[in-house]
Design goal:
Structural class: alpha/beta
CATH superfamily of the largest domain: Glycogen Phosphorylase B
CATH topology of the largest domain: Rossmann fold
Helix content: 40-55%
Strand order of the largest sheet: 2-1-3-4-5-6
Shape: globular
Largest sheet: 6 strands, parallel
Number of domains: 2
Order of helices and strands: EHEHEHHEHEHEEHEHEHEHEHEHHH
Number of strands: 12
CATH architecture of the largest domain: 3-Layer(aba) Sandwich
Number of helices: 14
Radius of gyration: 20 Å
């Protein structure tokens, strides 16, 4: 067996507990899991194009480098240089051009960096299909490694204990959730919004102001760490994922592992994430449809019983991080 040696280039602050994102969690799980499988990873954190170039230029001839797609897009020319002498595997957590407000430079950087990569890993079949559909990557250069999840206590919250986990940002759709909840003031419920407010500060300020008008029924916690997040899932009765854009939905994966039913927008990789039942999907970017689904959940015992039973069965089929790491490890070994 060839030596398991590679460089892994990730965004700066990947371990910062206040900068939690699905991409950072995925990168950390890969780093730790590959190390457990015997890989010697030279980790490089980059905060700008210069940092990306320094990390990629250090990759030896015929070496292997795994690079987070976010940083790869900052310096596609460095990706091209590295690919001319080494194996460059780009980890595409998202499709930038799928975002309605996508920055043109970011989209172009993504297009060029993916075009130069030796191989591309995506975190959902939807992302892989989108990259092919948009002409960014040929199918033969793609591998899908779905995010895993960790074991946790079974969710046991009352039906009205709603939980929404994700950075407070427009693409996550917290505004749609608040709009939907506005028509449910006649029912009993509370809602916890957990996630960083630093990704989209102006949007987060607006959500904070609007959430205050629901006080004390809506609570914004900021980022929840370790046991606090475990407790939030355990005490929840329903996860709500109102995203406008979503490659997969790692909060959904965590909910699945805990047998927690989900109401979510049928967008991106979310239908894939909830395959197997236990979820109610609604039209994306439609607060009325979301509110109607929530009303059904809160007022129809038969619907709740069905979704809870399905979620309980799906809990045992949810992928684990060991599966994700093994798939990526096999690809790197083959490379």
């Amino acid at each position: 067996m060839r030596d398991r040696v590679a460089r892994f280039v990730v965004p700066s602050g990947v371990d910062d507990p206040e900068r939690v994102s699905g991409g950072n969690v995925y990168d950390r799980r890969l780093r730790d899991g590959l190390a457990e499988r015997g890989w010697r990873l030279a980790m490089s954190e980059a905060s700008d194009a210069e940092g990306v170039a320094a990390a990629l230029d250090a990759v030896p001839r015929h070496g292997t480098v795994l690079v987070d797609g976010l940083v790869a897009a900052w310096h596609p020319r460095a990706v091209e240089r590295a690919a001319s002498r080494a194996r460059v595997v780009v980890l595409a957590h998202m499709v930038s051009s799928a975002f309605a407000d996508a920055d043109a430079a970011r989209v172009e950087g993504e297009r060029r960096s993916l075009g130069h990569a030796t191989h591309v890993i995506t975190t959902s079949n939807w992302t892989a299909s989108e990259l092919v559909r948009r002409g960014l990557v040929e199918r033969r250069r793609l591998t899908v490694a779905i995010p895993g999840s960790v074991d946790g206590p079974l969710a046991r919250g009352d039906a009205g204990e709603l939980l929404c986990v994700g950075a407070v940002a427009r693409h996550k759709g917290q505004d749609l959730l608040l709009d939907g909840l506005g028509g449910l003031r006649d029912l009993e419920w509370t809602c916890t919004l957990a996630g960083s407010r630093d990704v989209d500060a102006e949007f987060a300020r607006d959500i904070h102001t609007r959430a205050a008008s629901f006080a004390p029924r809506v609570r914004m916690t900021g980022v929840l760490h370790s046991q606090a997040l475990v407790d939030a899932y355990r005490h929840a009765g329903l996860l709500v994922a109102p995203s406008r854009t979503e490659s997969f939905g790692m909060a959904i994966a965590d909910a699945r592992r805990r047998g927690l039913p989900v109401i979510a927008a049928a967008v991106g990789g979310i239908p894939e994430a909830v395959a197997g039942g236990g979820a109610l999907l609604v039209e994306p970017d439609d607060a009325d449809a979301l509110g109607a689904a929530l009303r059904r959940w809160l007022t129809e015992p038969a619907l709740r019983a069905r979704l809870r039973a399905e979620a309980g069965r799906a809990r045992h089929r949810a992928p684990r991080w060991a599966d994700t790491v093994a798939r990526v490890g096999r690809l790197l070994e083959a490379a």
